[in-house]
Amino acid sequence: MRLLSPWSAVLVIFLAIIISTTNYGHTLLDKVTESVASYKSFETTAATTTSTISVSSAFGGSSITPTSTLTSATSPNMSTVSKASNTMSKALRHAKITPHRSSARGHSDHGWLNTYHSFSFADWYNPKFSHFGSLRVLNEDRVKANSGFPTHPHRDFEIFSYILSGELTHRDSMLSKGNEGGESEKFKQMKRGDVQFTTGGTGIAHSEFNEHPSETVHFLQIWAIPWKKGLPPAYHTQAFSEEAKRQAFLPILSPLKAGEDATLAEEKEAVPAIPGTIPIHADFVMGAGIIEPGKIFDWRVGAKVTKGTKRKVYIHVTMTKGGRSKIRLDGREDDDAILGEGDGVFIDNLASDDILNVESIGTAEAEIVVLDTA
C-alpha cells in the first residue's frame, strides 16, 4: 500500500478543517456532544433509581416518603428519601416471607365478644400456628359495652393489651376495685394508645372489662413466652404518642435491661433496654406505626438491643379502616408480600440489624404492629 506524501497529508488536514467549520461539520460535532450528554443523563438517572437509601432513627426505625428529590430529615425519627416504589431494591432477598391471611385465623363471635386468633387459642387449634419464636398469642378482639373477661388466672406468660379504640378497664389480684367510672390506683382504665402489660410469673389473676355504656372496645391481646418461669408478678400501663407513631415505628416493648438473671431489686426497678418502653422478660421487641398511603417505614431487626443474631419478625395489620389499608413488604411485587387488614406475615431467616421496609399502598393509613423475636 502506497503511503500519502507529505503534501497529500497536509491537504487532507486542510479539508478536515474546512468541513469542521461548515454547517455539516457543526452538525456532526453537535450530535457527538448530544450523545455524550444523553449518556451522562442516563447514567445519573440509573444511579438514582436503582440505589436504596435507608436512614434509621435512634430506636432503629425511619420514615421514608417516595419523592422526586432528596430532602433532609424533619425530625430525629423521620427521614425523607427519594425512592420510587416500583424500583425499590429488595434488601432482604435472604428473608423468607410467609403470609398468614386473615381468613386463615381462628374466629369466634360470642355476641359480646368478636375475636380473631392468629395463633392457636381456646377452642381453636391449628398446629401450623402454635407459636413463632417467643410469640404465642395474638388475638384481635372487639368487646361490646358492659361486657368483658371476668377474673381469671395466668402463670408464666407475658401478656399485653394494645388499645385501638374504645375503653378497657383492667383489674388484677395486685389491685382492688376502685370507684366506678373514674381512674385511681385501684384499677386502670385504658383508651386508644394505651398499653397494659402483665407478667404472670408465679401467678396472677386479672379481669378486663368494657365498662363504657354504649361503645365497643377494639384491642389486640398478645402473649409472649418469658425467658424463664417463676418470675415475680408485675404490671405496667403506659400511653404511647399517636403523633410519634405517625413519624416512624415507635418502640413499645423491649427486654428488661438487667436480663434474665436480674435481681429482685432490678425487677422492681423495671428498666427497659430501650428508654421509654415497657420492659418484657424475653428477647422480644414490639413496635407500632401508623403509615399514611405512599409512605414507607423502616424497621431495624433486633432494634439494636437484642443479643441473638438470628431473628424472626411477625407483622400484623389491624382491622381499623374497613378494609382500605394495605401494605407492601421489602419492595416486593409478589402477592405474599402484599397484606391487607387482618393479615399477618411470618418473616424468617433474618439477622440483627437487617432493615425491613413497610410501604403503605392502600387508600387509608395502615396501623400495624411489629413483633420481633429470637
From TrEMBL:
Chain segments annotated as transmembrane: none
Keyword DNA repair in record: no
Domain Pirin N-terminal: 105-223
UniProt keywords, alphabetically: Dioxygenase, Oxidoreductase
UniProt keyword annotation of Transcription regulation present: no
GO MF assignments: dioxygenase activity
Gene3D superfamilies to which the protein is assigned, alphabetical: Jelly Rolls
Record PANTHER family: QUERCETIN 2,3-DIOXYGENASE
Family classification: Belongs to the pirin family.
Protein name: Putative quercetin 2,3-dioxygenase PA1210
Organism: Ceratocystis fimbriata CBS 114723
